[in-house]
Amino acid sequence: GENVEQHPSTLSVQEGDSAVIKCTYSDSASNYFPWYKQELGKGPQLIIDIRSNVGEKKDQRIAVTLNKTAKHFSLHITETQPEDSAVYFCAASIEDMRFGAGTRLTVKP
Amino acid sequence: NAGVMQNPRHLVRRRGQEARLRCSPMKGHSHVYWYRQLPEEGLKFMVYLQKENIIDESGMPKERFSAEFPKEGPSILRIQQVVRGDSAAYFCASSHTSGGAGSHHTQYFGPGTRLTVL
Prior knowledge:
The complex is a heterodimer. By secondary structure, chain A is mainly β. Helix content of chain A is 0%, strand content 58%. Chain A has strands at residues 4-7, 10-14, 19-25, 32-38, 45-51, 56-59, 62-67, 72-77, 86-93, 97-99, 103-108. In chain A, the strands form 2 sheets. In chain A, strands 2, 4, 5, 9, 10 and 11 form a 6-stranded mixed beta sheet that branches. The A-B interface holds A 1, 6, 31-32, 34, 36, 42-46, 49, 89, 93-102 and B 4, 33, 35, 41-45, 48, 55-56, 58, 91, 98-101, 105-112.
C-alpha cells in the first residue's frame, strides 16, 4: 500500500519568513495530493490540493509543487503569520488516502 | 450546507464498556472514512465505507472494532470492550466520490470525537 513520509516533524520560523514542508510517497499510481491544516482541538481542514497532471498550484500565500518522477511534493507558505501556527499534514491518494505524520509549524511573532 | 458532523465530541468510557461514535457526512456525500489520531501523531486510516458497504477495512483492528454506514442515518464506529489504548481522537471524513481517473474525491473532515477510557 501507499506510504507517505513527511519532513520535518517540527518547524519554527519568524513571522514573515517562508516555511517549506516536504513529503514523499511510494505508490506511483497516486494521483491526488491534498494538504490539511489542523489547529488544536479541531479536525483537519483542507488548505490546498494538487492532482498528478499539474506540477504546481498557488493560492495566495500557499503553494504546492509536485515532482511525479521523484515522487515528492512540497508545501510552501510565504510571509508566514502567527495564525499559520498549526500541524500540517500531507496525503497521497489513489482510492484511499494515506497521511504523513504531520509537521508542527510555529510562527514566532 | 452543513459540514461533516460528529457526535459526541467527547466520550468517556470505563474499561470494558462499549463506545459508539457517530458521523453524518456532508450533504450529497456517500463515502465515509474513519481515522484515528493518537496525541502528537498523524491520522491513521481505519475504514472506508459507502452506503451499506464496507469498501476497505484494512486499517481496522481485527477484534472489538466495527463500522457501518446504513442506508438511512449516520455512520457508526463501534468499539466493544474498550481498553485504555483505545483513548484517541477519532475523525470521520466524507467525500462525494471515491476517486478514480479524473474524478473528484476531496475528503472533508469532521471535528472529531475524543474518546477517553478510564
